[in-house]
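We modelled the chain as a single entity of 450 amino acids. Its sequence is:
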Amino acid sequence: MVKWLCRFALALVTMLTALSSPSGAEPPLRQSLLQAEAERHVQVLTVRGVINPLTAGYLNRALKRAEAEGAAAVVLQLDTPGGLEGAMREMTQAMLNSPLPVVVYVAPAGARATSAGLFITLAAHVAAMAPGTNIGAAHPVALGGEAEPAMIEKMVSDAAATARALAEQRGRDTEWAEKAVRESLSLTCREALARGVVDLIAPDLETLLAEIDGWEVETTRGVVTLRTRGAAVVALPMNLIEQLLHVITDPNLAYLLLVLGMWALIIEFQEPGALLPGISGVIMLVLAFAALGSLPLNWAGVAFLILAAILLVAELYEPDFGVLGVGSLVAFVLGSLLLFRPFVPPSPVMPAVRVNPWLVAATAGGMATLAFLALRAGLRAQRTPVLSGPGRLVGQTGWATTDLAPSGTVQVAGELWTATAEEAPIAAGQAVEVIAAERVRLRVRRKSGG
């Protein structure tokens, strides 16, 4: 939109200049300079939250579009606690191999670039931070158990080497970059500027573009001089699908989708043919597993949650006085606690991920309520008389149509049944009471006073 407005403005200016010029036209060189000035723009991306394959694809797509549209530079506004190592490496490689200058701007105030965010910032052609931001802290932490020291050291060494390589490539402080990984160091924006980790501090995007105007950076095309002062700012947000999938990578939302999806399928099993719970449950589970693919996952936690759902369904169909329901609740709580606690240390680029304890407590309460309702429904079903088949005749009275010695026939509820007398013999014509039904045979006794 901005690009077309610039072109319209350029056409209007050119027409007015032609009308006022004695010669009736501008020299071709001046026209080309005016056009280049009017079309000069910077594309701005925004990444907030966990770094994952979606953010990597978003950056790659934006870089290709910016190059095709002739952008002067790409600005990546960043606020992240970290993310997946594979996605981080894809993003840093895209930036290192970009023919366009890439500016990483840690903003707004209060934002951070930790773990994976540190590596992405180090890979930028220009690294900037807003006041009140911080950077660093990229040391692996074992979640849910003690990891082998050799495994941790291997991961730390690899991450430290990557940080050093990126810092060396961009002429930044390699010593601190390594310590940020090995010792989990962090810096404020002013400390980062003093240590040479970033290039400048800018309170806003307009100031940033004005400050870096005229800087020379090395890209795959060679040395490029930034022309960003006064350039049009073109925002390039994630598309709707990217936004949706990026939002659900929040561990609390991913967990909630997983739980609600299972509950919806349980309701569908209880009420076959309802369709809505089944369809919505499948959709929520697909979204949940898409999100879980971007998070450090313990599959034992997923297995416990699935076991909890199976036990609850079993309680619905085979009431066992709450034993299955209690087992379901225990499995659910264990699965919730283990879900994001892998037994091996996560990558240094991945932040600590956990589900809010209050959310776990709330969903556990919901699971307990479902188990209680299942138990109550089962007990009610056991006490409810059977309304179809021979079982419906239990407790009703009729009369013997033949002598029962002990077997014969009786008529009950207008129907003729084969029957066996509990206390033979019962003469034909005597009143009888049905005390049990065994497939197609009734068990009867003489009706008192009959």
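As a brief sanity check on the tokenised model: The CA atoms of residues 102 and 125 lie 5 Å apart. The chain has three domains: 40-239, 248-383, 390-446.
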